[in-house]
Design goal:
- The protein is α/β, with parallel strands linked by helices and 293 residues long.
- The chain has one domain: Alpha/Beta hydrolase fold, catalytic domain (Rossmann fold).
- It is 35% helix and 19% strand.
- Strands 1-2-4-3-5-6-7-8-9 form a nine-stranded mixed β-sheet, with helices on both faces.
- Helix 4 (121-132) packs parallel to helix 7.
- The two termini are 36 Å apart.
Length: 293
Amino acid sequence: MGFFRGDIYSYHLSKMTPLHIYLPHDDNHRFLVDKPSRTLILLHGLGGNHTYWSRFTAVERYAQKNNLTVIMPEADMSMYADMSCGHDYASYLSIELKEILGKMFHVSTERERYFIAGLSMGGYGALKLAMKFPDQFGKCASFSGALMIGSREHLKELSEWKDPGRPKVYDEDYELMKELRQGCVGAFGEDLKYRDSEDLFALTRKAGDRKICLPEILMTCGTNDFVFDVNREYCRLLDELKMSYEFHEWKGTHEWGFWDESIRDYIGFFDIDEDSQDSSNKAIRKEVGYGGN
């Protein structure tokens, strides 16, 4: 695949921002200018950055087999919001980036060929942006999404958390709480005031009430992941609202092995071409066929 690493200027961010892009080509290493590709915006998690998907998964290989352009933008610890104390990442990723990609890189930006996905914070971000801007994305996927971000309960928990100081021995729970609080303060303000515009559950209910055409939804989550319960809770909400979705669960935790498996096995969700070189990814895991219609 062609691999672009560089910086672009964002009006909404008021700065240069990094971007990684995989562009598919055929077996003769020519870009597929005569075949319509599809474009996937792939979002990183809270402790990561735009390089992590390319560093810790084989997404390049999976995308090449499926004629899929993959865009990996930087979003810092923004919670994929127009931040109270920071930059307008939601507007950049949902509106401006699409225009930049179409004009600068000439990739597919039609809704039916333009998708968004992410892991952890990025899973929350992908679903949230899909609910906020449903006319922008044809499909949306969340891998181990931290879907509690922005909820009343989670903001209350973070506001009540008192930093005891970093332990001498590495403590994963401490690091997670510190990162979450730091990110949420930047995104939602020092007072961590609740806003229904950042609560995925509230946004989804509002979208259900409006009866609008939503992107197709796919989610995966490991049964041993700390975000598993909130993912199942979100599935129940989608069932209640009679929204179509796929949810796949299997044994796993919050780590890159699970996310590589997710993007490998479900990249076919993003409408691979009928003449794609890869047919194995069209199969759905039979043992994880939980979902609603």
